[in-house]
Amino acid sequence: MTTPGTLYGVGVGPGDPELMTVKAWRLLATAKVIAYLAANGSDSTARSIAAPFLPDDAQEISIDVPMRTEREPAQAAYDLGAAEIATHLARGHDVVMLCEGDPFFYGSFMYVFERLAGSFDCVVVPGVTSVAACAAELRQPLCRRDDVLKVLPATLDADRLRDELLTCQTAAIIKVGRHFQKVKQVLSALDLITHATAITKATQQDQAIQPVEAIASDSLPYFTTIIVKV
After folding, report:
1. Disulfide engineering: 2 pairs with which of 29, 92, 99, 176, CB 3.0-4.6 Å?
2. How far apart are CA 82 and CA 153, in angstroms?
3. Alpha carbon of 49 to those of 81, 147, 168, 211: distances in Å?
4. Which CATH number fits domain 130-229: 3.40.50.300, 3.10.50.40, 3.30.950.10, 3.30.300.30?
5. What residue spans in the chain does CATH classification 3.30.950.10 cover?
């Protein structure tokens, strides 16, 4: 009988390939099968980050995930992707799945993990998160001593965002995108807008850092984090 392969969920960090861990690099450099997500048929950010280390002969599995408010299309895409990965694992081939940032910190890998961990060995390789990368780029500590740090999805409704911001010293608001105006209004109402900085594509070549109060547009790229020092 063939011994099944192992699924590796590898965090490739926020954007700068040099921020990948040595373990991530080792697994990628020797991988025979590589999987990753491609949102709405576009290029994969995770693959772009890992590109300098990918073997030329590795077989690639691109999982096209529709980014919609409805959950059903994405769930169907994860089902298909997990099934394709399972085929390789059952044949005894290890599969390395790339994930931006960290696999278990809002990482897409967790949805494949949920589908396959009960049937195959899975190893999770942590990566540098976008929140840690933003703090480093801003040269601003996130928290100290008894400070409370909160990570808040911008998808929360305005009242929930407001309540959460009232009970922390630092907040990292992620998944900003089309929710920017809502976030900006909440920060203004709490007199926190002058304490908020937006970082888009942290550590990448086209990184942008802007004070939130100076941004006039109604939306920002999805990969934007707002750091608020409450």
Report:
1. 92
2. 26
3. 20, 32, 32, 27
4. 3.30.950.10
5. 130-229
Q: List Cβ neighbours of 1 (8 Å cut-off, separation of 6 or more).
A: none
Residues 85-127: tens digit of each pLDDT: 999 999 999 999 999 999 999 999 999 999 999 999 999 999 9
Read off the amino acid at residue 178: R
Class of domain 6-125: alpha beta
In angstroms, the CA 113 to CA 116 distance is 5
The encoded tokens of residue 18 equal 């040099």
What is the tens place of the pLDDT at every residue in 191-211? 999 999 999 999 999 999 999
